[in-house]
Amino acid sequence: MLWPLASLLTAILATLFVGWLVDQTLQRLAARHPDAPVWESLRRCRIPLQLTLLAALLLLSHPIRRIFPSEDSVVLHTVLLALIASLGWLTVRILAAVLEAVFSRYETITEDASRVQRVRTQLGLVRRVGAAVIWVVTVGALLLTFDAMRTVGASLLASAGLIGIVAGIAAQSALGNFFAGLQIAFSDTVRIGDTVVLEGQQGTVEEITLSYLVLRLWDYRRLVVPVSYFVSKPFENWTRRDPGLLAWVLLHLDHRTPIDALRAELERFLTGTDLWDGEEWSLTVTDTTPSTIVVRAMMTARDPDATAALKLATREHLIAYLRDHHPDALPRVRTT
Questions:
Q1: Digit-coded pLDDT (tens) for 119-167
Q2: How far is residue 210's CA from residue 128's CA, in Å, rounded to a whole number?
Q3: Alpha-carbon separation of residue 299 from 8, 242, 302 (angstroms)
């Protein structure tokens, strides 16, 4: 009895030692290469690695058979299930670490932000699809360890066609979202970090899964949208090719407004602000009414956030300038 217990204790201690040794090695590699996140990602594989190693040692050394001779088959089957499940868990963690390393490498050698976002979105969906496939295979392997499942396997395969048709009809929406997610990932229509507008709601794409997409709105609310929406309905993507946008401000002013002075003030303001990207700007009179003129100021910015901030700042500055230097330019209601 002592020898089986000693074998069991040795297997547990060996598993803990191997896990500690692997973790220390990865920690040192991460310290030597701080720019490579793969080592930190692989450290998350420690627990499934230890479980896999422990289950394998228990199956090979058979200490449980000597400790529980009357329930040998049940205990060994439980250990086998633990081994298969931990292997699936370990494979998912390794896949995530490898894909993160691929993205990190691509991010360092590519300066195009749009390509980085596209690859980030694609690898994220590849990770989810790969994890789903691994878990399906793992669950299938777990079920095949039971004699009852192997016995009914032939009948299940015979009825697989009918079951597939029924499941396809019942899960039509879910399957549509699944394939829509794959289409979005590899067609480059929308990526993580893009600024989009759908049905009047402007937001930044925060997360893309195989079934839904999360938008972070300007007031920090989250809008969850099925991914099938983006392949069946039109939407605006402000940052698909170039994140730069054109901001514009409309001012209703009096006919006596000095347009040249206002134009020079706009140029001076844009030159002194970091929100303007230095590309384009203009100030023109676009319309007139019996009581006012409509002045439009346009300027470019590097991204949607800077565009919104520049638009607000320009409006405030021009109104303050007219109030302080040309008060007659502000619109007023004439009674005579």
A1: 777 777 778 878 888 888 888 788 777 776 655 544 544 454 544 554 4
A2: 8
A3: 73, 16, 11
Residues 6+ apart with CB under 8 A from 182: 125, 129, 210
Are the folds of 173-237 and 245-329 the same? no
Q: How many CB atoms lie within 10 A of CB 114?
A: 17
Task: Locate the domains of the chain by residue range.
Answer: 2-109, 173-237, 245-329
Phi and psi for 190 in degrees, rounded to 5? Answer: -150, 140
Strands, sheet with 236-237, edge to edge from the N-terminal-most edge strand:
222-226, 212-217, 201-208, 195-198, 236-237
What's the pTM value of the predicted model, to 2 decimals? 0.51
| CATH architecture of the domain with range 245-329 | 2-Layer Sandwich (3.30)
Determine the CATH number of domain 173-237: 2.30.30.60
User: Cα dist. 241→114, 195, 238, 269 in Å?
Assistant: 7, 11, 8, 28
Burial readout 72-111 (b: 16 or more C-beta within 10 A, e: otherwise): eeebbeebbebbbbbbbbbbbbbbbbbbbbebeeeeeeee
Coil, helix or strand at residue 45: coil
Helix and strand element counts for the chain (H, E)? 13, 8
